[in-house]
Amino acid sequence: MSIIEKLKWRYATKKFDTGKTLTKEKLEILKEAFNLTALSYGLQTLKLVIVEDKVARQGLVEVAYGQRQVVDSSHLLVLCIQTEIDGNDVNNHFDTIKTIRNTPDEILQPFKEQMKSTINGMDPEKKVGWATRQAYIALGNLMTVCAIEGIDSCPMEGFIPKKLDEKLGLDTHGLSSVLLLPVGYRASDDMFAGFKKVRKHLSETIIEL
Predict the structure, then answer these.
(1) Measuring CA to CA, which residue among 46, 47, 42, 38 is closest to residue 115?
(2) Are 155 and 13 in contact (CB under 8 A)?
């Protein structure tokens, strides 16, 4: 299938086949795809938490308003932001640049200080909003890669972040959940799989100047 056909194939899977599991190879692809997501400044203030344990996930159904996808899928991907974002993240980022590219400090320092000034100049609320938008970029990237790889997924905002954080102990890792993405394979009797996609005509969504 072409990439457009694959995107037409994907849908927000409502019912997963509980007997099918992603291979380690497929899971590695999703990990790499998350890590390669294009993010603001290249500063990775996101974490991807992968929950495979069914018992742990059973306890998440309630905080996801009864949506069974969180437990019936092969794996539950939890996209999280750091609760603290500061100059140390910038320092670590530039240390990584220096290690990988062997770029001299005199070249990196001006950009490093400029970025630290920008990050430190944000109030906590603005930092959360900025980091959250990065999580949505990662979500879109993961969903596209899932479609390419023939993996079903269901993006979810409908859950109670604080309660999910408590159940998974994310707060102890300095993380706050933003989005959920159950992944796996659709059940043969998921009626939503056969529904035609409903989208506006291109002429209504695209403006060419």
Answers:
(1) 42
(2) no
